[in-house]
Amino acid sequence: MKFNEHISPPLIRLSHKLIDAGLFGYVESISNFMVAIKSGRWEELPVDEQLMWLNRLSGLLGARALMDTWDSKDKDLSECHTILDAQIKALERKL
């Protein structure tokens, strides 16, 4: 399964939860990321640009951001972190 196919379901579920909770500031940044990966051109991006997007999203979902205002044990949030961490490590090995 490709990265974009793997990250989309938990990220979309998390986005719905954030909308329901009124945390719209997070949703805007997540939607920008989703546009990038749903464009069909994600894999064509240079590794350093993919890493930039992934690190930005990881920071948004991490400590001192969403994890400060959201349940850090949320299944979808945890799944997103697991997928992002694995992808970041895989791309860093390519550099």
Description:
It is built from five helices and no strands. It has 95 residues and is mainly alpha-helical. The chain is globular.
Layout: helices, strands, pairs:
Elements: H1 3-20, H2 24-38, H3 47-61, H4 66-69, H5 75-94
Helix pairs in contact: 1-2, 1-5, 2-3, 3-5
Rounded Rg: 13 Å
Give the termini separation. 22 Å
Query: Mean of residue pLDDT?
Result: 94
The biggest beta sheet, please? none
Strand % is: under 5%
* Class based on secondary structure composition and strand pairing: mainly alpha
Count every beta strand, where a strand is a DSSP E run of 2 or more residues.
0
Proportion of helical residues? over 70%
Number of folding domains? 1
* Helical segment count: 5
Order of helices and strands: HHHHH
Q: Rough shape? A: globular
> Uncertain runs with pLDDT below 50, 5 residues or more?
none
